[in-house]
Amino acid sequence: CRAAGRVLQQSSSSSACCGAIPMRDHNVMILVVGGGVSAGYLAAAVAERGNGYALRIISDEDVLPYERPTLTKAALWKENPMRLPSFLTTVGTRGTAQSKEWYKDHGIEIILNTRIASVDVSARSVVTSDGDRIQYKHLVIATGCTSIKIPPEVGGDLPGVHYIRSYKSIMALYQDLKVCENAVIVGGGQYALEAAVSIAAWGVNVDVVVKEPNIMHDVWPATLASIFEDDFRSRNVTFYFSANIRKIFGAGQTGGGFVKCVELDDGQLLNTDVVIVDLGSKCNTGLFEGLDRAENNSIKVNSQFLASGGGAAEGSVYAIGDVASFPLHLHEGKHVRCESVEHARKSAFYIAEAIFSKKPLPPYHCVPNYYSRINEDDTDPLLWHFYGVARGDVLTVGCIKQKQQLGAFWVKGNKCVGALITNGTSLQLQQIRDSVEKQRTVNVAALQEATTLQEAMVILTGLISRKYVVVGGGMAAGYLAKAFVDAGKGHELCILTDEKVVPYERPDLVSILNKVNPGRLSSFFTGANTGEPLQSKDWYAMNNISLCLRHRVVATDFASKKLTLNVRNQNEEQVMTYQKLIVATGCAAVRFPDSMGGDLNGIHYIRQYDDMLRLYEDVKQARNVVLVMRGYIGLDVAETLATWGPVTVVLLERQLMSRMWPQEVATRYEKEYVMRGITFRTSTMVKVRLQ
Prior knowledge:
Blueprint: E1 6-9, E2 25-33, H1 37-48, E3 55-58, H2 91-94, H3 100-105, E4 109-112, E5 116-120, E6 125-128, E7 133-141, E8 145-147, E9 161-163, H4 167-177, E10 182-186, H5 190-200, E11 205-209, H6 222-233, E12 237-240, E13 245-250, E14 259-264, E15 269-271, E16 274-277, E17 281-283, E18 299-300, E19 317-319, E20 324-327, E21 335-337, H7 341-356, E22 369-374, E23 382-388, E24 393-398, E25 406-412, E26 415-422, H8 426-437, H9 444-449, H10 453-461, E27 464-471, H11 475-486, E28 493-496, H12 537-542, E29 546-548, E30 551-557, E31 562-567, E32 573-583, H13 609-619, E33 625-629, H14 632-641, E34 647-651, H15 663-675, E35 678-681
Parallel strand pairs: 1-4, 2-3, 2-7, 3-4, 7-19, 9-16, 10-11, 10-16, 11-12, 18-20, 27-28, 27-32, 28-29, 33-34, 34-35
Antiparallel strand pairs: 5-6, 6-7, 8-17, 13-14, 14-15, 20-21, 22-23, 23-26, 24-25, 25-26, 30-31, 31-32
């Protein structure tokens, strides 16, 4: 039977609180150890299948799984910083926050603030620090990584020294920043740089100490790094390269802070009030002795994330996210770790499919993707995406000044194995991802002569090309995508839609207008009404379908099989070629002419998700609603709006549904709707006047 889900908040002083009975010996189908991004998305994937009751998650944090990339960006904003629960998983891809109620509603048990004392993979059991023993069928290791710390003798454990890894640590840092004038950041990686820009925006003087000769040294050459370093300097960030920390000096409580200064290895002193450390990470794998290991003491898994060794039964132990090393095709099948949030999400959905699917899955396929959004809420944001592996020679094109675009391409053996672009459109990102995935041959000489990113992209890929292109993002497109996936052809499909959301069940749009518990888009993606897994953005990514949102076709050349696209209503146009074109554009709403008032505020046309959101906001303040309609969708809307207040339905014909229903049927239904507070006006001409 299905058990109700619950969230337990363990504490050091008691086995459980919230009135829960302490566990002793329990059995569970899937036990997840770890409470990060992977755990949250695995919960989403299992819940979509209706199997939440089979899942238990144990986390040593005291908060529910959340989107970790937010920690060094929006969580550190001085004004209106983001706080939980606003970025719980799966807000990053679906807009749905997996709250305590969400876990309960889906039958998932999640136990917080609890550590694992021991693991016996041969006996399929774990013991918590409270002495509870849990037997499992499948163990999923999602423990992620912990920060590499500065030794205590150097001052790494002083108050005021912060490590970027958890929500709790960022909240402590935020409190110190309120009385901070100077900050020292140790490390030149992605998270250190994001934190540097976020903190500098407070008006704080930020010094960044980097032991390497440039930022992002493991992946960026000096020529590329210098371009970004200049941008950071313009944001009040100062760099100290090829430098190490010799000593951190504490100031004591009377010094106005917890640290006083940092001494570099050359004797230079940097005054500071706080120190933020990001020297990299190490895998949390100490509990899992005996399992096969790879780099950085990570857990070595096969192409389906199955671990082996230590007497573990075949198919009983999985490892996902940062803690796992898996074979990567872009690296000749060698095992790699991938500290990417997209990989954490995608690998979670993959193993849910592996556990519950009745048929063998193809090997996990991944194009590593790293991205950073710096000052995203500012008038001068810097957003970069990287796909692939940083191997071979690097060719750099363009710049990041005056809102221009920068591109960098990693070339090995005349093949593109990695690519980075700044402020890219979704179509550009698809383009570089495809180039890396297919390891396109590069005309190095031509690419070296390119002066703009757009020119470089044409040289690299020619025209953007897809085998099957669907124009339209409605239900037909969504179900066609499912058919392609079932046929093993998802990677050959591209969907172009002018909406900003993935395909959804359009009849369910009316649920958004519910006065109590209005519907959420994440509950009616296509697949919702058929019992299949919801086709979320994660689902499209997992199945390698190119989903291009906010892309509008502005011209067609059927003879040459070309489409001209406008992206995000920008001036720039792009061209795509296809082998087969599938038109699924549906219908547009019939509109009143502007001369009749059809463009006035308060006039709504019911067709898309955004239409319903705008209508919902107006209805909350409306005293009367007039609905001009012909079909059954209007009836559903009228019935729902009648729960808010008076509704008048204007029919342009003599009766309701005149094209389908005989008079007696229409009359019967009209009487029923009148009883629900709806007034009908038939055979009526309409003219709108501005009040």
